[in-house]
Amino acid sequence: MIRLNINGQDREIDVDPETPLLWVLRDELGMTGTKYGCGIAACGACTIHLDGMAVRSCQTMASDAEGMAIVTIEGVDGKAAKAVQAAWRELEVPQCGYCQSGQILAATALLAETPKPSDEDIDMAMSGNVCRCATYTRIRAAIHRAAETMEG
Amino acid sequence: MFHVMKRMQDAAARPTRRNFLKMSAVAAGGLVVGSRLAVPGIAQANGASTEDAFTPFIRISPEGIVTVLNKHLDMGQGNATGLATLVAEELDAAPEQMRAEFAPADTGRYKNLAFGMQGTGGSTAIANSFEQYRKAGATARAMLVAAAAKAWGVPAAEITVSGGTISHGSGKSGTFGEFAEAAAKLEAPAEVTLKSPDQWVYIGKSFPRLDVPNKTVGAPNTYGMDVQRDDMLVAVLTRPLAFGAKVASFDASAARAVKGVVDVIEVPGHGVAVLATSTWPAIKASEALEIEWDETGAETRSSDALFAEFRELAETAGPVFRDDGDAEAAIAGAATVVEQVFEFPYLAHGMMEPMVLTIHVEGERASLWYPSQFQTVDQQTAAAVLGIAPENVTIHTLYGGGSFGRRTTPDARHIVEAATIAKLWGKSQPIKLVYTREDDTRAGYYRPMGVHKVRAGLDADGNLVGWHHRIVQQSLMSGTFFEQYMVHDGIDETSVEGVKDASYAIPAFHAELHSPKVGVPVLWWRSVGHTQTGYVVEAMMDKAARAAGVDPLEFRRRHLSQPSGIAERDKDNARKLGVLEKVAEMSGWAGPENGDRFRGIAVHKSFNTYVAEVAEVSRRDDGTFRIENVWCAVDCGVAVNPDNVKAQMEGGIGYGLAAVLFSEITLTDGHVDQVNFDSYRPMRIEDMPHVEVEVLASAEAPSGAGEPGTPPIGPAVANAILAATGELPAVLPLTKTGLA
Ligand code: FES
Ligand code: FES
Fold this sequence. Notes:
The structure holds 2 protein chains of 2 kinds.
Chain A: E1 2-6, E2 9-13, H1 21-28, E3 47-50, E4 53-56, E5 69-71, H2 79-90, H3 100-113, H4 119-126, H5 136-151
Parallel strand pairs in A: 1-5
Antiparallel strand pairs in A: 1-2, 3-4, 3-5
Chain B: H1 8-11, E1 18-27, E2 30-37, H2 42-45, E3 53-60, E4 66-70, H3 79-91, E5 98-102, H4 107-110, H5 125-152, E6 159-162, E7 165-168, E8 173-175, H6 176-184, H7 212-215, E9 233-238, E10 246-251, H8 253-256, E11 261-267, E12 271-276, H9 279-288, E13 290-294, H10 303-313, E14 320-324, H11 327-332, E15 336-344, E16 356-362, E17 365-370, H12 375-386, E18 393-397, H13 413-425, E19 431-434, H14 437-442, E20 450-458, E21 464-473, H15 483-486, E22 487-488, E23 491-492, H16 493-496, E24 508-514, H17 530-548, H18 552-560, H19 567-587, E25 593-594, E26 597-606, E27 609-619, E28 625-635, H20 642-661, E29 667-668, E30 671-672, E31 690-695, H21 713-725
Parallel strand pairs in B: 4-5, 9-19, 17-18, 21-24, 28-31
Antiparallel strand pairs in B: 1-2, 2-3, 3-4, 6-7, 7-8, 9-12, 10-13, 11-12, 14-24, 15-20, 16-17, 16-19, 20-21, 22-23, 25-26, 26-27, 27-28, 29-30
Helix pairs in contact in B: 3-5, 5-6, 12-13, 17-21, 18-19
The complex binds FE2/S2 (inorganic) cluster (2 copies).
One FE2/S2 (inorganic) cluster sits between chains A (94-100, 131-133, 135) and B (76, 352, 402).
């Protein structure tokens, strides 16, 4: 039995403690917004926040997340998240959309830390998040847009 | 994708009568609008609906929600919104009340009019639905207006509809929901008049993407990978490392010891499947399997050896697919001759959501949940494996996390795998077949590798006089049921598209194709044959321009502006010139050199859409190139949603760039060397250039947008590198030669 705090809620889950958090979220809790793309930390589709940091849930053992605040796309909130999601909609970033939960979580963590990122900051923070539909130009633009709205 | 399948339309029966609204039906107190289709032949042939079937395209609920049934798969290209836009336009609905749903599998009702089967590909979704879905919208509107006229006791002609509100000059107004039920009881009009383009309020302007909000909040039940059913098992199938190998023996003891594993079964002809109660144990257990493979009869050649064989073949004559004038003589008499051999690797599609499919067999019926891109074939395949009737196979289509061609396979391999596993398991329990990224990368169905050899001759004035082109490429179609439609006299149309219809003014043009057999399954990949032919033709044009000492834009202008005497070619050339001039203007083209940066230009027609691109590159200290800027001009006829066309161009450019710069599938003794995104390198945000797109205004019929952005980017980059180095990059990806 492991105890996790997910999106502000305490959950008890009967699962092998070494199970990656990704599969605990998706299969045990039915929270499928966090996506599987590679399983080896190479794509970022599984990005979540662990104590506010963007991490790859496919590489995080469930037991390692005990005692930490886990935030997923289903629960992400706050000024940066709201601005990011709004900008994503305004600029219609998603195509297939499969990578976008991860992109949004990564972008939110970036803006929480760096409210006015440069293109280089964006490239650095978002490099781990692959988009095979190549929505990158809009991701960049939407992050700048979100930064603007956060200021205003 | 299978755009060239158009010829199938002739083979399959066409609707003999297609008029909307001979019939309407009441569903849950609302209005359902569709068409009656008399489809002799094909319906029975495909085991789908009966003749004269009722086809629902639109549902309007008492709450006023308008749901459009999308007969296509939306895997990111935006057709769900595109079709809803067509309906909303004629219905004069408000965007907020529009919803999109995927239609069930039913060939008779929901076939793609471009190829007579239900499926999505070849960038045809908007083109083949343009009239059909607008008519459905216009019919629903007429019925709502008739119902309101009756209720208010006013002439229908005095009623107006705008933004989802029905109103009359007397001050009366109402919503669609209020009149949906009454409208459903009325006789549908036999004929409807569609708006003229100047009346459009959404088409060609803007309409919000209906799927975007859900895709920004991680909404459940969106993708195939999200499917969860009660009592569901997850299957992970281990396939052989060499294509065509068979299981000799296997030891599943370690796999069975993994907690959550329910069974391990051999799937004859496919591999070994682990069945588990959830995904992680299935993955872990499949990694613990020990399998011995029998590679007798399997494909065990290495890609280097295949390239050597292909290069040799490129030196010998093959079946001819184009022969205008005497190219050999023209080249022999030319003032200058340029020559180049090109090499293209196998490519995986690498869509973000790996292949996945959930199947539940219950007696004589089966239900499937997944992003179905080829309903007709998938339905029949599942039925054949399970020994049940096709109409007993229900397909629930979900959004696809990308596809780029991968989710339509003529042999429906993923359906065969899942249905076979379900059959072997025997219990009536939902089974979700999950491809891991590793499975997805190594399972084959690649863009074929290819070698092209081209010789082109120029006269003393720098005009092309002869072109000799030889293609060596594995056939996509031979051995599939498409062969009868797509392969003629040994020529697979998908191998030669883009060369066969190359439209530059060249008096003598000769082209041949070799189609060697290789045991690696191949498949269409975003823009199909054009991924190679567009590169070769456009890169050769620059090599020739350079030899002639003429600016590459000017060189293209010259070869596009001479009347050919063939109407279709002249029209192609006029539209190609249109996008070329536009992209030249956008980029401020003043030749290939721009300070310390270099530029390349390319233009190509695919899927009836014309795209020109300029790529601007810079050279890093280590000799590799960085793609800084891309300008793109597109003419796709009427652009139903211009911003979405832009998005598809941006995406098509990025997808094509990944292939040009980084991606390749190679084989060592038949085993795929790449495994995951670590070794099959994708584009990342720092690799993405700044992209500017302009959509040309056009009154031509709408054509594709999903694929045509991809072909020109490769040669645009190649031509920029040619300008920088004097050498045409002819071996892809560029990482192979240290250029990326
Ligand atoms: S699934 Fe975790 S990084 Fe790809
Ligand atoms: S939107 Fe499709 S992978 Fe990013």
